Amino acid sequence: MDAGRSSPTASAIFLATRTYLELMRHWDAVLPGRILRVWYQDVVDDLEGNLERILDFCGLGYEPGCVEFFYKTERAVPTASSEQVRQPIFREGLFQWKNYEPWRGPLKDSLGEH
């Protein structure tokens, strides 16, 4: 984060999380069975299986090239993350949230388990 910008407060994080959960409950109610939940950890653990599930949900067929994106692409990627595009799915950050476990109790308690 820029030195001139402050970090989000716990209440801002809570509000954003609560808003997201309320929005997802809304879409589940309005479009039952039409929202596919994709959890990053599941994708990291089983990229091919989850990709097949996503494509099936969208009515698309699976192609092996879908999981070869990071090492077979030769096209230019004009973004700041151009090097990340050529890397496997990122596993190292999966549990970084645990560093903040001691401070997330009130947020976790007020939102319940989701």
Keywords for this structure?
114 residues, mainly alpha, 2 domains, extended
Largest sheet: none
Averaged pLDDT, please? Answer: 81
Q: What is the element string, with H for helices and E for strands?
A: HHHHHH
Backbone CA Rg: 18 Å
- Strand percentage: under 5%
**In angstroms, what separates the terminal alpha carbons?**
28 Å
Determine the number of helices (DSSP H or I, runs of at least 4 residues).
6
How much helix is in the residues?
Answer: 40-55%
The tally of structural domains comes to 2
Commentary on this structure:
The longest helix has 21 residues. With 114 residues, this protein is mainly alpha-helical. The protein is extended. It contains six helices and no strands. It has two domains: 27 residues; 54 residues, no CATH class.
Outline of the structure:
This protein is mainly α and 114 residues long. It has helices spanning 10-30, 40-45, 47-57, 69-72, 82-85, 105-111. The model has no long low-confidence stretch (mean pLDDT 81).
Set out the fold topology.
Blueprint: H1 10-30, H2 40-45, H3 47-57, H4 69-72, H5 82-85, H6 105-111
